[in-house]
Amino acid sequence: MIERLHRCGRALFGVLRRPMARAFDSAENPLNHLGAMTVFFLWIVLISGIWLLIFFRTSVSGAFESVEYLTREQWYLGGIMRSLHRYASDAAIITILLHIVKEFSFNRYRNKRWFTWVTGVPLVWMLFVLGITGYWLVWDELAQYVAITSAELMDSIPIFTDSMASNFLSDDLLSNRFFTLLAFMHLIGLPIFLVFGIWLHVFRLNGPRINPVRRMMAASLLALLVLSALYPAISHEQANLAMTPQTLRLDWFYLHIYPLVQLWSPGWVWVLLVGISTVIVIAPWAPPEKKEQVAMVTLDYCNGCERCVDDCPFGAVEMVARTDETNYSHQASVNPGLCISCGICVGACPTATPFRTRGELVPGIDLPDRSMAGLREDIVAVGKKDESAHVIVFACRDDRKRQAM
After folding, report:
1. pLDDT average, residue stretch 259-275
2. 312 in a domain, yes or no?
3. 230 and 306: one domain?
4. 377 to 139, 205, 298, 357, 383: CA distances (angstroms)
5. CATH number at residue 142
6. Structural domain boundaries enclosing 386
7. pLDDT at 404 over 50
8. What are the pLDDT digits (tens) for 374-394?
9. Domain presence at residue 197
10. Model confidence pLDDT, tens digit, residues 131-143
11. If DSSP states are collapsed to H, E and C, what string results for the chain?
12. Which of the four pLDDT bands, split at 50, 70 and 90, describes residue 315?
């Protein structure tokens, strides 16, 4: 079952990669930078949100009026910033969901990678809560719908004694203090936790790429600006708790779960959300994957050059004091708790060249299960299988543009 899901996910990315590979090389393919693109979109959300905050009034009457001022009267800047804030938030949802599917499909969530996978779950929750609270602050009819439905969801949790939904029975019960608290949570509280969560998500990686290449950032920003100019984000009518909104334009990126509250009970919606999150969290251990042997250092061929240390994406290789009697001062050492047996360190080792034909091929660092000597044997076997082949090309299977060349 799990392998079937992996194949389906890889097939999906195969379909997406074909047009992308024709348009971009590997270094600039957005599908290779989904996590970094999410961080970039969050930066846009932060910067545009700061501008909106300057003009935003945290009161029941002032919230809608200040947003309308930005949208209508200051359309050339405030309106663009609001639309940019909206569309960058939606783009972050797209990239983060694609990032999750990609990591799952290519089996990059098990064994030593479980920590990065599991810490990503609260990040998704925080991102959705940020988007939902952002809709509250506009205080139009959509915000009224989101606030009342969210209150119903919160009231279904037994730890709360007072009803939140009662705060939205009339305009008289809704206080300015509530908007001040909501603005603080949306603009300061949750972003701080989100930044800490991103750090926790990547801190076990060695030199994580949290920023995409500049041309990709420029192209993405330009596309969002064009979209903001052509289809500006606008509000519904001002919220009126004495009336029920009749027509709503839902943002399906963030509010897709809300119609279910009307179809099901809030309790069943929580069962669905918690159930999906639980399945994602336990995925690295269900079923457990066969553990591969970690990289092994052969001191006779290790000169302490540190290339394997620099290239290891998980910081599993470090330099320690030499334990033999050679003239080299340091040697590579592998931490079994961090090594995922990816083989990148082997490719970094200067002695791990499969084209060396004289003598035994023993790199300074190697994988016992997939040795460099075994790779050389495979190369030789391919050459003997088809004697008419004069060139063997080594290429990334995901870089179809270069393969075509």
Report:
1. 92
2. yes
3. no
4. 68, 32, 20, 11, 10
5. 1.20.810.10
6. 296-404
7. no
8. 888 887 787 777 666 567 777
9. yes
10. 999 998 999 999 9
11. CHHHHHHHHHHHHHHHHHHHHHHCCHHHCHHHCHHHHHHHHHHHHHHHHHHHHHHCCCCHHHHHHHHHHHHHHCHHHHHHHHHHHHHHHHHHHHHHHHHHHHHHHCCCCCHHHHHHHHHHHHHHHHHHHHHHHHHHHHCEHHHHHHHHHHHHHHHCCCCCCCCCHHHHCCCCCCCHHHHHHHHHHHHHHHHHHHHHHHHHHHCCCCCCCCCCCHHHHHHHHHHHHHHHHHCCCCCCCECCCCCCCCCCCCCCCCCCCHHHHHHCCHHHHHHHHHHHHHHHHHHHHCCCCCCCCCCEECHHHCCCCCHHHHHCCCCCEEEEECCCCCCCCEEEEECCCCCCCCCHHHHHCCCCCCCCCCCCCCCCEECCCCCHHHHHHHHHHHHHHCCCCCCCCCCCCCCHHHHHC
12. confident
Take residue 369 and report the two structure tokens written for it.
Answer: 């299960």
Residues 253-257: contacts with CB under 8 Å, at least 24 apart:
253/89, 253/90, 253/93, 253/94, 253/131, 254/89, 254/90, 254/93, 254/128, 254/131, 254/132, 254/135, 255/132, 255/135, 255/146
Read off the tokens for 287.
Answer: 């079923």
Query: Which of these three, 263, 285, 307, is where a domain ends?
Result: 285
Tell whether 206 and 302 lie within a shared domain.
no
- Token pair, residue 56, equals 């935003």
Q: What is the pLDDT of residue 229?
A: 94
The count of structural domains within the chain is 2
- Whether 102 and 113 have beta carbons less than 8 Å apart is answered as no
Please give the backbone phi and psi of residue 388, each rounded to the nearest 5 degrees, phi first.
-80, -15
What is this structure's pTM?
0.82
Place of tokens 């250092």: 297
Structural domain ending residue among the three candidates 285, 316, 334? 285
User: Across residues 56-83, what is the average pLDDT?
Assistant: 91
